[in-house]
Each structure stands twice: as structure tokens, then as C-alpha cells.
Specification:
Blueprint lengths: L17 E7 L2 E10 L2 E9 L5 H11 L17 H14 L4 H19 L9 H13 L4 H20 L29 H8 L2 H11 L5 H5 L10 E4 L2 E3 L2 E3 L8 E4 L2 H13 L37 H10 L7 H8 L10
Antiparallel strand pairs: 1-2, 2-3, 4-7, 5-6
Helix pairs in contact: 2-3, 3-5, 4-5, 6-10, 7-9
């Protein structure tokens, strides 16, 4: 395989300078102009009445002596943080990110870091400046999770710059999340509320709650379950559903065998009989009975069918027992965050 051709970096040019006669401070002066580090430099050499043109040329050549020895050397690019993120960090990271990571992390970097810090030169950013930025975000009301993820993003961005030799070290390595960041208040299920929830739910909704509560499965993993993943006493987590698309699990350790309690196994058998699948075919899913779907990645192919995501009857039942309402996948996280709760405890 032929290597990908890389564009040649720009190199420093030999500077002869430009000598001009301009009026300054009420009299005419010789002024030298030249380029250095992508910027046009200038210096007043002396008044024209006291300096001839040959003398001014000699003075300009002497001024350019420290510059011209570096002629022919590559010019290091002066990176701004916005250019580094857009041209280097994001293109590299998208090659390894999953869809969920690209959606959440990419949006967070664009909304906060690029919007707030894009004009800063990356070589001029210090650790104190970055720590002050995190404290400002915490003071403006950003949650602890957002500020903590921004700290992680900054460490990854500047770590790549240090690895590529743009920076001598990573200024974001020792950043910490300010303790003033607001911690969220969450309603978490208690052991007393679990039987109340199970009593008011139908068989399929009970199965979803049990898989999340007793088996510790994530909502996307439950939605992506197929009958071929279900055994007598366990299920195999090999995929997940995110925004209607099948994807690999969140981490490598998420590919696992999940044990099922005896009551969950009995409920699975009842749900299978209700679906008329005494011997389920390979690849069939745990969705409601109905016409076969041609799109294997559709949300309806998981345990949680779209028709029950916003069920008013289930909502009234949950409100009556005073528990967080796990009807939609995002609210199912409220149950999953209560893990683990033993079915024997309930």
C-alpha cells in the first residue's frame, strides 16, 4: 500500500528586507520591513537627514542577521485551539468513537470549548488559564457532569498536542473538577417501591424493569435483545441500540453474560408463551407479536416497543405509587442507576 503523500511544510525564506522612506514624528525616516513568524515586522533605522540610503541598507542587513541563519528551516505552525481541535483532534477521534460518543462528546466540544477558547494560541495556554475556565463554567451553573467531562476533553486535546510535539508538556494533565460544580439531585428507587412498580405493570413491562433492576442491563442493551441471545438462566449482551441503530456495547467489558433470577426466567417463559414462540427461531426478537419487520435495526425490534414508550396508563400507575416513571428509555436510566438490588431483598 502506497503511503499517503503529506504536504511539505513551509520553510523560512531568506529575508532581504524592504527599505522605505516614511514620514514619522514630523520628519522623514528610514524604516525596514521584513517577515518573521508569519508576521510582518518593522523598525525605524534613523532619520533621512542623518543617514544615507547605503547606510540604511547596511543597518537593515545587520538587523536581519539573527533572522537569516534560520533560512530553509521548516516554519512551525502557530496553532489556535479551534484549529487544533477541528483539523487534528476531532478527525482522529472520530475514527475510534462510537456513534454515541461522537454525538455527545463532539457536541460538547463544539458548544463549549470551540465557542469559548477557539481563538487562543495553543502554545500560550497555561494550566492556570484552563483551571480558571473550568471554575468559570462551574460558576455559570454548568453541572458537575458537564464540567468533569470538559476537564477530560481538555486533557485529551492537549495530550495529543504534547504527543505530536506541538507542546513540551500537557498543561491539562493535573486539572481538577471544581468542588463548586452543581451536583444533580436524582430520585432513586427504594426497595419498598420496587414491589409497587412490579404489581402495576404488565408482563412485558415487568420484564424490562427486572432486566434493568435485578440484572444491571443498560436500556440500550435491553432494546437490542433478541431471542437468540436468551438462554435458560442467562442472556448474552453482544449489542446495543442507540438512536435506532445497532451498535457494539458501550465498552469491551460490556460484552458479557448476564445471569437471570429465577423469577425473571419464569417471566421470560411466560412472555415467550404469550408471543406464541415455544421454540423461537434464530434471530427473532423479544418485541410484541406482529408482522415481521424488514429493518433489523429498528427500535421496535428490542424489548421496548415504541408504542409503550409514552404510555399514559403506565404513567398513571407509576405516579400512583410515587416512584420514578421508567416508561421511556431515558427514564429507564432512573431504574438502572438504582442497581444492584437483589431480587431476594425485594
Amino acid at each position: 500500500m502506497d503511503p499517503i503523500p503529506q504536504p511539505a511544510p513551509p520553510r523560512r525564506r531568506f529575508q532581504r528586507g524592504s527599505l522605505q522612506k516614511r514620514k514619522s514624528r514630523g520628519c522623514w525616516h528610514w524604516i525596514a520591513f521584513w517577515w518573521e513568524d508569519h508576521r510582518r515586522r518593522s523598525q525605524i533605522l534613523g532619520p533621512c537627514s542623518e543617514m544615507s540610503r547605503p547606510e540604511a541598507l547596511a543597518a537593515m542587513a545587520k538587523r536581519l542577521e539573527p533572522v537569516n541563519p534560520h533560512a530553509g528551516e521548516p516554519i512551525p505552525r502557530i496553532w489556535t485551539l479551534g484549529d487544533w481541535i477541528g483539523d487534528v483532534f476531532l478527525p482522529l477521534s472520530r475514527r475510534k468513537w462510537k456513534l454515541s460518543t461522537a454525538s455527545t462528546t463532539g457536541d460538547r466540544i463544539r458548544k463549549h470549548l470551540i465557542t469559548d477558547l477557539s481563538a487562543l494560541e495553543i502554545q500560550a495556554v497555561s494550566r492556570d488559564r484552563l483551571q480558571q475556565y473550568l471554575e468559570q463554567k462551574a460558576a455559570t451553573g454548568c453541572s458537575f457532569s458537564v464540567v468533569d467531562h470538559l476537564r477530560w476533553d481538555l486533557r485529551a486535546i492537549f495530550g495529543l498536542a504534547a504527543q505530536d510535539g506541538v507542546l513540551p508538556s500537557n498543561p491539562a494533565e493535573l486539572l481538577f473538577t471544581p468542588p463548586t460544580a452543581a451536583l444533580p439531585s436524582r430520585r432513586v428507587l427504594s426497595a419498598k417501591q420496587v414491589p409497587q412498580i412490579l404489581q402495576v405493570l404488565d408482563i412485558r413491562e415487568q420484564l424490562i424493569v427486572r432486566l434493568a433492576l435485578f440484572s444491571g442491563m443498560r436500556p440500550g442493551e435491553i432494546l437490542a435483545l433478541l431471542w437468540k441471545h436468551v438462554a435458560e438462566d442467562h442472556v448474552e449482551v453482544v449489542q446495543r441500540l442507540y438512536r435506532g441503530k445497532l451498535d457494539r456495547p458501550k465498552t469491551e467489558r460490556s460484552k458479557r453474560t448476564v445471569a437471570l433470577s429465577a423469577s425473571t426466567c419464569e417471566l421470560l417463559k411466560a412472555w415467550r408463551q404469550q408471543q406464541g414462540r415455544s421454540s423461537p427461531t434464530r434471530g427473532s426478537s423479544l418485541r410484541r407479536a406482529g408482522p415481521p419487520r424488514s429493518d433489523a435495526t429498528a427500535p421496535g425490534d428490542g424489548l421496548l416497543h415504541p408504542s409503550c414508550r409514552r404510555s399514559d396508563s403506565n404513567g398513571r400507575r407509576f405516579r400512583s405509587c410515587g416512584a420514578p416513571m421508567p416508561v421511556s428509555p431515558d427514564r429507564l436510566v432512573s431504574i438502572q442507576s438504582s442497581l444492584p438490588i437483589s431480587s431476594a431483598t425485594v
